[in-house]
Structures are given as C-alpha cells and as structure tokens.
Amino acid sequence: MGRISRISISIDEELIEKFDELSESRGFPTRSEAVTHLIKSTLVQEEWKTGDFVAGVITIIYDHHKSSLLQKIVKAYEDYEQTSRALVS
Asked: pTM (2 decimals)?
C-alpha cells in the first residue's frame, strides 16, 4: 500500500450514525478502516463487472456416510453449472 492520504467529507448525520453502527458491528476499530474496506470492496465489484476472468473456490466438507448427500452436491453443481466451471470427481 502507498502513502496514506487524509480526506475530509461531509455526510448527513443520520447516515454516518448508521455507518458507524454497521462498522462497529463488523469489528472495524476505526471509521477510517471501515471506509477503506468499503472503497476496496466497491473497486473489486467494479472490476468483476468488466467481464474479465474471475476465479474462486468452493470447498465442501461432508460426511460421506450420510445417505444421498453426494447426489445433493452433484445436483447443486448441475444447478449452477452456468456460473461455475468445476470438476466433480
């Protein structure tokens, strides 16, 4: 990360109170860290909208002794096959 820049913004009091409550409930120690996280998340979402390649991993831990569980996992894969490309072995 580069140098830190200080900024000043004006926000409606009710809105900032709600933001502070949300930030605290999510465990951000400072408003600056919450705002930084929000900006980074927004930038990532914008990158995803460009249609460039995005990769992810879904890990499923299951008890193979449970009946019909494997069939449910395969069905879930088939239901979302258009949005995910994975190998089921």
From this structure: 0.54
